[in-house]
Amino acid sequence: MKLSELLPIAELQDLCEQFTALTGAVTAILDLEGNILIATGWQDICTRFHRVNPGTASRCRESDTVLATRLEQGEPYNVYKCRNGLVDVAVPIVFMGEHVGNFFTGQFLTSQPDAEAFQAQARQFGFPEEEYLGALSRVPVFSDEKVRLIMGFFTRLTNLIGEMGVARMKEEAAKKELQASRQLLQTIIDTVPIRIFWKDRSLRYLGCNPLFSRDAGYSSPEEMIGKDDYQMAWAAQAELYRTDDRAVMETGRPKLFFDEQVQSREGRLMWVRTSKIPLKNESSEVIGVLGIYEDVTDRKTAEQMLVEKNDELQRSNLDLEQFAYVSSHDLQTPLRNIVLFAQMLERRYKGALDSEADEFIRFIVDAGKQMSSLISDILEYSRVASRKEALVCIPAADAVATAMDNLALEIAETHAVVTIAELPQVLAESSLMTSLFQNLISNAIKYRAADRLPEISVRAERMAPDRVLFTLADNGIGIDPVYHDKIFEIFQRLNPSSDTEGTGIGLTLCRRIVHRFGGDIWLESTPGSGTTFFFSLRTCP
Ligand code: ADP
């Protein structure tokens, strides 16, 4: 900043003029570029003689230079007898340690002038003697004591000027900072993609951002100031909003993220998510209310559509399950007859027809049986969905025991060793729980390795205060990790052409049962070494 902008020039000029009138000493303030900011009472002897004549003027310039250079070298002040015989004083003006200008006084004498010397000077430079001596007589003579006083006065004055300049600089900087932060805040309010408004205690608008004023039917936030909700596009709902505003101001507590409907200026009903916060001053007194909201109409419509689609999906799922159940159920009887009569054909006419016919009949019986187990698995699967019995607390060990009984033949035939650890009580349904274990143990036996006897272990451990983790591990053929998710899908079998019988529904059923119990099922496996199934269930309360 320039020195001229930092100093109150007009006031200082007045002050210096008064000083000159009182003392007769001249004053001047110059910046470092040599611009004269203030000048008072220059002596005729200088302005009309010394600074005009080239000979004496060069002495003046020499004096000015010496004075200024000494100050540049850091002297606190400088008293200098100029080469034309007068005394000059200069004091540096310093702002925050930086030398920014100089204060000059002088053009006085410290003792009665040597008239002969000045007469000689008049002759040397061709000044009219009488006028020159007249000007000399108007030059004030100050005693040493007075010079000291003047020096003291000026040193203090320049200190004061320095302080004033610093204060002004700080004020300017603070003003700029305030302006910048106001500007930033304004930019944020104007560009943020939400509506913002604030009202005073009588619920008149104090301000808002452009998005808000547009909703309200005005072209700029300025037009909103001083107006209330009765003058907005949503005048019909004004009372509703004002009741909310009052509640927030009275309780001093914010009301956050609530959905409400507003009418836009085009008459469109839109959903908005609003928050209202009490506006407080530095003493924490509520002086109004601050509100923000965003248009969530699209989100709301999408949510609504999702709920409808979900209902639709649930209905169609239910229909489908019903269809699967009814059709499987109705298919069972004719199928049973087909198998029955094919078996009768086999028994009565085996050997009576040719060997190819015997083979065809075998195919019919086998395919019929396979279809029958498929149908009963589908039935079982759709039963889980339609079952709505409440979950009860049952001992998991009982379900495993029943499953083992049902699988006794397979266990005996394959010499499978099943180890069962202590198992807890869980929230489940008895027959489904049996079905779950039966499917998993049956798979562990079915998919055993050819070169070793099946070993199966069943364990459980607590994984959270209200959850247990069951582990069912086997030493069978294992499952490639790429199929770990796929095998839970309906009708998915990894080796359908192999000898092992199956429908590809077992694990889908297991997952459905576990989900119905509020748990989850997954597996880990090393192909060739074995598979471990994990499922979590809820403990009894
Ligand atoms: P299914 O046994 O009737 O074929 P599942 O749904 O019970 O149908 O199993 C799907 C597929 O997952 C099986 O065909 C089999 O390839 C694989 N599988 C299931 N359990 C095991 C296991 N314990 N070890 C190896 N593979 C398994």
Outline the low-pLDDT stretches: none
Instruction: Determine the mean pLDDT.
Output: 90
Look up the CATH topology of the largest domain.
Beta-Lactamase
Counting DSSP H or I runs of 4 or more residues, the number of helices is 15
Quick gist of this model?
This protein is α+β, with helices and mostly antiparallel strands and 541 residues long.
Characterise this structure:
- The chain folds into four domains: 3-173, 2-Layer Sandwich (Beta-Lactamase), CATH 3.30.450; 192-295, PAS domain (Beta-Lactamase); 303-386, Orthogonal Bundle (Helix Hairpins), CATH 1.10.287; 388-541, Heat Shock Protein 90.
- Helix content is 49%, strand content 22%.
- It contains 15 helices and 17 strands.
- It has helices spanning 3-6, 9-23, 44-50, 54-72, 115-125, 129-137, 144-191, 210-216, 238-251, 297-349, 355-386, 396-406, 408-414, 430-446, 506-516; strands at 26-31, 36-40, 78-81, 87-95, 98-108, 195-200, 205-208, 255-263, 269-280, 286-295, 392-395, 417-420, 425-428, 455-464, 467-474, 521-526, 530-538.
- The chain has a five-stranded antiparallel β-sheet with strand order 2-1-5-4-3, with helices on both faces.
- Helix 5 (115-125) packs across helix 6, helix 11 (355-386) runs parallel beside helix 15 and helix 14 (430-446) runs antiparallel to helix 15.
- The longest helix is centred in the middle third of the chain and has 53 residues, at 297-349.
- The structure holds adenosine-5'-diphosphate.
